[in-house]
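1st attempt posting a full record on here, be nice pls
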Amino acid sequence: MDEHRGRRIEGYAIVSEDGMLATAGLVMPPSLMFEADQRFFEHGLDGVDVIVHGRHSQEQQPRSPFRRRVILTHRVASIAAHPSNAKALLWNPAGARFEDALSALGLPEDASAAVIGGPDVFALFLDRYTIFYLSRAPHVALPGGRPVFPEVPARSPEDVLSGHGLIPGPVEVLDAAKGLTMVAWHGADR
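the predicted structure (as C-alpha cells):
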C-alpha cells in the first residue's frame, strides 16, 4: 500500500504565459496579482493543515501569521525550529522525511498540505500531488523569470504536470474581464 495514500497535497501557482511565477529577482510582479486568484488561493489555504514553501515563497494573506508552515531550506541538516515563528519549521528534505517534519509540528502524517512554491519545492511533490491548481495570467510574459518548475521553459508547466501523471480538469474562468483562467490537475490514484 502507498505510504502517502490518505494525505491530501495541493499545489497552488499562478504563472505568466511563459510559465514564470516571479521575476528573475524573485519578486512576484503586480501583473501576476489578480483579486480573483488571491481569493481562490486564500480559500484553499484555509482548508489545509499546513503550508509548504521555500524561503523565497510566501503568501501575504490576512490569516498568514496564524497558519502552520514547513519552510524548505538547505541551511539546516534535517529539521529545526524557525527562529522567529513558533508555527513554522525549517525542513531539509535531504535530511528528513516530510512526515518527520509534520510530526515535529505536532501534525499527523496524513495532515493536508498546500504547496505554494518555489520551483524546487513544487518539483519535490510532483509525484505526490492530489491536486495542483494552475492559474494562467493572460498577456503577461516574464522572460528570464523564475519558472514554476525547474524544467520550464524547456517544457510547459502543463507538460510537466502531465508527465507526472496528473490529469487536467476543465478550464475554469476566475476573472472573465481579465482573461484569468485556472485548471485543476488531479492525481489519478493519489
